[in-house]
Design brief:
Layout lengths: L1 E5 L20 E2 L2 E2 H10 L5 E6 L3 H10 L6 E6 L6 H8 L10 E5 L2 E3 L3 H9 L5 E6 L5 E5 L5 E6 L5 E3 L7 E11 L14 H9 L4 E5 L5 E3 L3 H10 L3
Parallel strand pairs: 1-4, 1-6, 4-5, 8-13
Antiparallel strand pairs: 2-3, 6-12, 7-14, 8-12, 9-10, 9-12, 10-11
Length: 238
């Protein structure tokens, strides 16, 4: 199984570190976020990883070369000319996954102790073309699911905006964890340029099964701010 790490973002919330470095090279307990997530994937037997780069792309590529891929086989998807966000980044790298039965995609600035093998097994046992790791936690933006944990929509809790892919009587909100197991069917993407992967899921959810995988209770942190790096150091202490 292959994987992709989204590492192209500018990481504005991690300023001032990201004024001179990519967020993927921010450290937690002496390891970069990049190394943490590559090691996480390796624990589940995933060694072939595509990494998209844009912000200080050369620093990421130099770190990968110097550390011999941290033990993984790395393919770079270079977005130096224009950052494409998560959806556009996946579309640009899609040719790496067309022959896979399933593949994992993760945000590089997320740390989590989710049991990825169980999530993969749940995905493979379903008819879903995508399985999204979600939690019951506070978040300004949430995904909406029906009673069978099928994706129905998306909500911005700050603005009140909702985007509904399927109308159902009752929808339950969950926060997306930035971890997903996908099949190549997801790669049939009608959008171009810069767009979010959420756009892709809402598009497919109208006619296909996009499932949520509830891992509430796992240790999770979105390492988006300097103070979250300190929190992560305690949560993921050796």
């Amino acid at each position: 199984m292959n994987a992709m790490l989204f590492a192209a973002g500018s990481g504005t919330r991690l300023k001032p570190f990201t004024d001179n470095h990519p967020k993927a090279l921010a450290t937690v307990n002496g390891k970069t976020l990049l190394e943490h997530n590559l090691c996480f994937l390796q624990r589940y037997g995933i060694y072939d990883v595509v990494i998209n780069v844009h912000h200080f792309a050369i620093q990421i590529m130099e770190a990968i070369t110097y550390n011999k891929g941290f033990g993984s086989n790395i393919t770079i998807s270079d977005e130096s000319d224009e950052v494409l966000e998560t959806g556009g980044g996946l579309k640009k790298a899609a040719h790496n996954f067309h022959n896979e039965h399933a593949f994992v995609v993760m945000n590089v600035d997320v740390l989590c102790n989710i049991q990825l093998d169980k999530m993969i097994a749940a995905h493979q046992a379903s008819d879903a073309i995508a399985t999204l790791a979600v939690m019951q936690r506070n978040s300004s933006r949430q995904l909406l699911f029906d009673e069978h944990m099928m994706l129905c929509g998306w909500a911005n809790n700050t603005t009140g905006q909702q985007r509904i892919a399927r109308e159902v009587l009752s929808m339950k909100p969950y926060a997306f964890s930035g971890i997903q197991v996908l099949t190549p069917a997801v790669l049939d993407i009608p959008f171009n340029g810069k767009f979010s992967i959420i756009d892709v899921y809402l598009h497919h959810a109208r006619e296909h099964i996009i499932k949520g995988y509830d891992h509430t209770g796992d240790v999770f942190i979105d390492v988006g701010k300097p103070e979250s790096l300190e929190k992560a150091a305690h949560l993921f202490a050796k």
